[in-house]
Design goal:
Elements (H helix, E strand, L loop, with lengths): L1 E4 L6 H14 L23 E3 L6 E3 L12 E5 L9 E5 L22 E8 L11 E10 L6 E8 L10 E7 L1 H7 L6 E11 L12 E10 L19 H12 L16 H13 L3
Parallel strand pairs: 1-8
Antiparallel strand pairs: 2-5, 3-4, 4-11, 5-10, 6-9, 6-11, 7-8, 7-10
Length: 283
């Protein structure tokens, strides 16, 4: 069963906080190599396999078109050049080197909502156009050796032009969404993550615009804090423990303290963003 949903905005702020902590501390994020920094096979980042993509899609900050949010690497997906590239994606659905498991994150059936977050950029002067959809696809899969897809969902990017700025992407697939699929055991035990674009050659128009992705995060369960300043327990209460957590993250240049543009740079704009969120308080 294939579903198509738009990104859900309601949980985005809290999700961003939790994923930022996961990217910094590797505790919440279920993805391997979420910032695409480490090298894998075929010139692509570790933990991802290309579908009609190759090493030219793995971008370095030193490249002429090297748009990178944090670290020195990102990925790009360019417009299809013909029907053979109608579907382009990176996927986590392939084996780790020793063959003992897949890179797909684990999933517990009805064990909590699944949240996907990331950042994308469309270069200034470009617009994503004429594709059927550009975004992130989640494929919920049954236990190996079955591997079959229990259900899948495609989340489109919320805007097709970003003016050369990184824009946050976030979407949620809830337990209620999973129940709506129906009861078809065996149930899913993992989820494949695919940044992708799909173009229908029958449309008669060529796709346009390049999209870059960086700093992906996938979690299942509760989101944690109420806003960007709610960095420490007890959550839903802003107090001095949150201030200390921010100062610690800021001093060590962790993602949890990188709250404002320019991203990848820890400066006074991040301090102002923290103070603004702290002053706003929890709902």
């Amino acid at each position: 069963m294939r579903q198509s949903l738009q990104p859900l905005l309601a949980a985005g702020v809290a999700l961003g906080v939790l994923c930022a902590a996961g990217l910094a501390n590797d505790d919440a994020n279920l993805l391997t190599n979420p910032g695409f920094e480490d090298a894998g096979l075929a010139g692509l980042p570790l933990g991802f396999q290309g579908i009609n993509m190759d090493g030219s899609n793995w971008v370095d900050s030193s490249d002429p078109d090297g748009f990178v949010r944090t670290g020195s690497k990102s990925i790009k997906i360019e417009p299809a050049e013909g029907p053979g590239q109608a579907f382009q994606a990176l996927t986590t659905n392939f084996f780790v080197p020793d063959g003992s498991d897949l890179y797909d994150p684990d999933y517990e059936y009805l064990g909590g909502d699944v949240h996907i977050i990331g950042y994308y950029l469309v270069p200034e002067g470009q617009t994503l156009a004429n594709d059927a959809i550009v975004g992130i696809k989640l494929e919920f899969r049954r236990e190996p050796p079955n591997f079959s897809v229990y259900t899948s969902v495609e989340f489109a990017v919320p805007q097709n032009s970003t003016g050369g700025e990184w824009v946050e992407f976030h979407a949620t697939f809830t337990d209620a969404d999973m129940l709506a699929v129906g009861d078809f055991p065996p149930y899913a035990t993992s989820v494949s993550v695919l940044p992708f674009r799909f173009w229908d050659p029958a449309s008669g128009v060529d796709p346009e615009g390049t999209i870059y992705w960086d700093d992906l995060c996938l979690i299942q369960g509760d989101l944690g804090g109420c806003n960007e300043a709610d960095l420490a327990e007890p959550y839903d209460v802003l107090d001095f423990s949150d201030v200390l957590s921010f100062l610690t993250a800021f001093g060590s240049q962790e993602a949890a303290a990188d709250l404002a543009a320019p991203f990848g740079v820890w400066d006074f704009s991040d301090v102002l963003a923290f103070l603004g969120a702290f002053g706003a308080g929890c709902p």
